[in-house]
């Protein structure tokens, strides 16, 4: 007995295949119906073909041990889970998440399944496969790239916990740098046109909702969570302590700190206009969906049903509803309020506020500050008379 030189060992009453998988030496007996294959010339030729096939699959990363040796101690886990199956498995574990969240997860999972050849065994996935997939989308923003990577990271981490992967192949992926969208505020004339259009075409509740956003400076997540119990009518203040994030109501804001927002006359007018519609409702929300009476779970419905069509109807250049917040911040600055006060109203640190709105701080005060300098440099009437 002996070896054919192709990883096939011919023994007295059996044939063994010898090969390496992921650095581990395998020595397996070929069987049929659970019995060792007899070392006949025909069976030896068959064994050589199987050995060649196994080597090729190992080279291309498609080898599954259980497909050839189901009774082997190395095949106790059965068929290896595929990349696509792992992504689907992880998605099922997220079924408790809000619909808006699941929608984003499904989009990401579908994208990864298109890029990573879902039929291949999960354990063959390499870090370079992930890098090449991401590199195929050079126009993505850093935020989009990070969101897609986050979904894959979580799906692969589940595989590590389940024992289907020894390590997470996405580990070491550097997060993409991204900049938050720059402030691109609306003019007060545009604000008035938008709100008048909302009232005419969608009714007073939609007008009041977007008006409150324009004149309070709340984040979208905060405006969705506004409650009547947090309005102090006498002091004209609003306690901002809650947020709706990815469909989940949270008793905390983005910065995990509540704040008091002083309400100006136009913000107060919006709340007073909304009061007859929802103030006596048991749910306590100021701006629920007027179609259903239920709380908005995210900003997509008001954005797509009302905001986008209205800007298109008015011929106003499209900007995200988040720019209502930037619009209010620039209103404060152009009115001459101090950056410290404006930052407090917006829920920013002063450093963050100055960095975000430096352009408007400079623009609003340049003329004033230059006027001070000109007063100093200009000759006094007395000096002019002596000259």
How does this structure look, described?
- The chain is α+β, with helices and mostly antiparallel strands and 387 residues long.
- The protein folds into 3 domains: 74 residues, no CATH class; 80 residues; 181 residues, Intergrase catalytic core (hpI Integrase, Chain A), CATH 1.10.443.
- The protein is 51% helix and 10% strand.
- It is built from 15 helices and 11 strands.
- The strands form 4 sheets. It has a 4-stranded antiparallel beta sheet. It has a 3-stranded antiparallel beta sheet with strand order 7-8-11. Strands 5-6 form a two-stranded antiparallel sheet.
- Strand 9 and strand 10 form a beta hairpin.
- Helix 8 crosses helix 12 and helix 13 runs antiparallel to helix 14.
- The chain is elongated.
Topology:
Blueprint: E1 2-3, E2 8-10, E3 15-21, E4 24-29, E5 31-32, E6 35-36, H1 41-60, H2 65-68, H3 83-92, H4 99-115, H5 127-135, H6 142-162, H7 188-202, H8 204-216, H9 220-223, E7 231-232, E8 237-240, E9 243-245, E10 248-250, E11 259-262, H10 265-278, H11 300-314, H12 323-334, H13 339-346, H14 350-377, H15 381-386
Antiparallel strand pairs: 1-2, 2-3, 3-4, 5-6, 7-8, 8-11, 9-10
Helix pairs in contact: 3-4, 3-6, 4-6, 7-8, 7-11, 8-10, 8-12, 12-13, 12-14, 13-14
């Amino acid at each position: 007995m002996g070896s054919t030189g192709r990883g096939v060992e011919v023994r007295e009453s059996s044939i063994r295949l010898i090969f390496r998988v992921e650095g581990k030496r395998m020595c397996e007996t070929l069987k049929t119906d659970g019995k060792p294959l007899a070392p006949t010339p025909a069976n030896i030729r068959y064994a050589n073909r199987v050995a060649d096939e196994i080597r090729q699959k190992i080279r291309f990363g498609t080898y599954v041990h259980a497909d050839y040796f189901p009774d082997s101690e190395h095949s106790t886990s059965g068929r290896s889970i595929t990349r696509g199956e792992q992504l689907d498995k992880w998605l099922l574990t997220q079924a408790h998440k809000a619909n808006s969240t699941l929608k984003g997860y499904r989009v990401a999972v579908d994208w990864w399944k298109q890029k990573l050849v879902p039929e291949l065994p999960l354990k063959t996935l390499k870090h370079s496969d992930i890098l090449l997939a991401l590199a195929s989308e050079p126009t993505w923003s850093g935020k989009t790239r990070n969101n897609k990577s986050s979904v894959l990271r979580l799906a692969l981490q589940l595989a590590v916990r389940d024992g289907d992967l020894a390590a997470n192949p996405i580990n070491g992926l550097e997060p993409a740098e991204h900049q938050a969208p720059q402030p691109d505020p609306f003019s007060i004339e545009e604000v008035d046109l938008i709100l008048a259009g909302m009232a005419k075409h969608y009714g007073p509740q939609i007008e009041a909702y977007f008006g409150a956003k324009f004149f309070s400076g709340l984040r979208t997540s905060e405006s969705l969570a506004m409650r009547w119990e947090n309005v102090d009518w006498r002091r004209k203040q609003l306690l901002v302590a809650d947020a709706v994030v990815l469909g989940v109501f949270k008793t905390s804001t983005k910065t995990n700190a509540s704040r008091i927002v002083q309400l100006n006359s136009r913000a107060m007018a919006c709340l007073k206009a909304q009061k007859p519609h929802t103030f006596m409702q048991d749910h306590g929300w100021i701006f629920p969906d007027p179609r259903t009476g239920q709380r908005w779970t995210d900003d997509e419905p008001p954005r797509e049903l009302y905001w986008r069509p209205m800007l298109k109807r008015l011929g106003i250049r499209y900007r995200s509803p988040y720019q209502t917040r930037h619009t209010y911040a620039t209103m404060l600055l152009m009115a001459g309020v101090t950056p410290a006060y404006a930052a407090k109203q917006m829920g920013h640190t002063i450093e963050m506020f100055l960095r975000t709105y430096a352009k408007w701080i400079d623009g609003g005060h340049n003329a004033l500050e230059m006027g001070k300098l000109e007063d100093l440099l200009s000759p006094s009437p007395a000096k002019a008379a002596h000259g």
